[in-house]
Amino acid sequence: MRRGSTALALGGLAAALAFPLLATRVTWQNTAILMLMTAQLGVAWNILGGYAGQVSLGHAAFFGAGAYVSTILSMKLGISPWLGMGAGAVCAAGLGVLVGTPCFRLKGHYFAMATIAVGEIVQAVVNGSDALGGAVGFTLPLGETGFWGFVFNRSKLPYYYIALGLLLLTVGVNWLVNRSHVGYYLRAIKDEPDAARSLGVSLTRYKMIAMMLSAGLTAMGGTLYAQKELFIDPNSMLSTSLSIKIALVAILGGAGTLWGPVLGAVVFTGIEELTRVAFGGTGRGTDLVVHGALLVLIAVYQPSGVMGLFTRRTPPAVPPPEPEAEFP
Amino acid sequence: MLQVRDVRISYGKVPAVHGVSLTVEAGTIAAVVGANGAGKSTVLRAIAGLNRIDAGSIELDGRPIHGLPAHRRVPLGMSLVPEGRHLFPRLTVRRNLELGAFTRSDKGEIRESLEMVLETFPFLREREQQLAGTLSGGEQQMLAIGRGLMSRPRLLLLDEPSWGVAPMLVARIFETIQAINRTGVAVLLVEQNVQRALSIAHRATVIQTGRVVAEGNAADLLGSELVRKAYLGL
Q1: In a 10 Å sphere around its CB, with 0-12 CB exposed, 13-18 middle and 19+ buried, how is residue A25 labelled?
Q2: Is ipTM beyond 0.90?
Q3: A311 — contact with chain B (CB < 8 Å)?
Q4: Among A142, A255, B103, B104, who pairs with A200 as Cys (CB 3.0-4.6 Å)?
């Protein structure tokens, strides 16, 4: 089992590394980059939403924070977006603490609703602020190209490999969290919050750790997006529909599993792109109808996420035969 | 050791406990008994910090603790075994026990406690790697008690330890509670199984609809015709 999944992961990695060299059509490469970027956001969301069980519908705020911080630093101060990516992650983690401090007092649906409000507030603030580009946003200058400038205009390939690297980093952080004591605490908090508290586990502290990691990694995805599109505005970076998409990808794929969000992103983006190609020409939004219907089907028939197709359920709740005899 | 004075607790606007006082002396077993819905668990959860009190005070070793969040009360020497056990079903037996020692840092001492718990509940040893959710009701209760002991409490708060446990095992659970008490751990026991609770407790408090209606030596209460008839349904 263990060896099987390692082989699978290595095989998947090899395929991902080779893909853009074999699939040379730009549209395919573009779709693949989109999948990787979406997957990265889903995996980052999963640390908070999956492992800690705190469903955030405001992650676009962190995504936007990453994009805006790196963009402003590079436009105003000429700082490399690579450094901006780190700065964005730190700012987003700080924003996460600001958001978490009041919102972690809320539970379940109320937490989710509060995060929607946070996302909307951030969007409204940026929309109204000239210093942040207002509703018009920023068009990133085509200045220094190449690796250090983080702008590549000859080929999409560098973006593909950067997206892949960022996804691997995010999966790696997820894996480490999952294996560490923090991961056990998070699962304890998610399953039995009262029991965890009465053993001395501070819920807020561990939720906050999950929030900071999740927000920081999401922000790094935001910087990558900004550098790839070279245009950011509140509508594309901060909208609640983006927040919902991030959560959907992880939930459809299988929240709380390592690879679920990656799978979710491949399926979600795949459906999105295919329906657009197949039905997008009608101009009546047919693609969106089909896309939505497929999502409903997944939710109905595979409620534990696409990942549920590959893993067996957690062990049955049926207890083994009553073991009275075993007690001396 | 534990002093609860005139606490009032409500759920939203509905008052549930109207002024309950009780005391647990170091090294003894105290029981809180009463009918379903009398407010027993509510008081116990307030002592652990899971319910807020509207008025009154809770003191541990003379220090008021009712302002502290639940997780900061554990290091002061008490731990709660909640009603319905609330194990972490997707973690192994071993991890559940380790989480019980969350507030402690000395690895050697934690290992000692683990050994002690495994000696108290030998069946847990062979099930260390099994997921807690796959244990039977009685086994889960014992694991929950074991987990509660891992913080090495001086005061163990037990909420309905006979809940959902096969009748044959109930006696064993109560024997174990007595054995734990003999090692010097004070126990505050909330139970619907009045007969059993009073027969192992030193002192007892009878609660009815959120008020204390009788208090005293457990054996006396068990012997008092009036108390038995009026409040305990015996």
Answers
A1: exposed
A2: no
A3: no
A4: B103
**CB B103 within 8 Å of CB B132:** no
Q: Which domain holds residue B41?
A: 2-85+154-232
Domain of A205? 20-238
Measuring CA to CA, which residue among A70, A92, A87, A83 is closest to residue A211? Answer: A92
In a domain, A327, yes or no: no
In a domain, B15, yes or no: yes
Q: Which residues of B touch A (CB under 8 A)?
A: 48-50, 69-72, 74-75, 79-80, 82, 86-91, 95, 98-100, 102-103, 122-123, 131, 133-139, 147-148, 151, 166, 168-169, 172
Whether residue B102 is contained in a domain is answered as no
- Output DSSP code: residue A50: I
- Any domain includes B130: no
Considering its fold, how many domains does chain B have in total?
1
Which residue type sits at A45? W
Closest CA to A183 of A51, A49, A314, A93: A51
Whether A147 is covered by a domain: the verdict is yes
Best of B86, B96, B142 to disrupt the A interface by mutation (most A CBs within 10 Å)?
A: B86
For chain A, which residues score pLDDT lower than 70? 1-3, 143, 283, 311-328
| Residue A27 within any structural domain of the chain | yes
Measured at the alpha carbon of residue B52, what is the angle toward residues B49 and B56, in degrees to the nearest 5?
100
pLDDT of chain B, 234 residues: tens digit per residue: 999 999 999 988 888 999 999 999 999 999 999 888 888 999 999 999 999 999 999 999 999 999 999 999 999 999 999 988 889 988 999 999 999 999 988 889 999 999 999 998 999 999 999 999 999 888 999 999 999 999 999 999 999 998 888 888 899 899 999 999 999 999 999 998 888 999 999 999 999 888 998 899 998 988 888 777 777 676
Q: Quick: pLDDT tens for A188-214.
A: 888 888 899 988 888 899 999 999 999
Fill in the amino acid letter for A248: L
Residues on chain B touching A324 (C-beta within 8 angstroms)? 138, 166, 168-169
With CB atoms and an 8 Å threshold, state whether A326 touches B103. no
Q: Is residue B95 part of a domain?
A: no
Q: Show which of residues 130-159 on chain A sit within 8 Å of chain B, judged by CB atoms.
A: none
User: SS3 for B142-153, per residue?
Assistant: HHHHHHHHCCCC
Q: Does an H or E element contain A197, and which?
A: helix A193-197
Which of A184, A187, A189, A198 has the highest number of chain B CBs within 10 A, making it the mutation to test binding with B? A198
The counts of H helices and E strands in chain B are: 10, 10
Q: Domain of B210: which CATH number? A: 3.40.50.300
Return d(Cα B113, Cα B108) in angstroms, integer.
9
Helix, strand, or coil here: B135?
Answer: coil
Phi, psi angles (nearest 5°) of residue B69 = -70, 160
**How many folded domains does chain A comprise?**
1
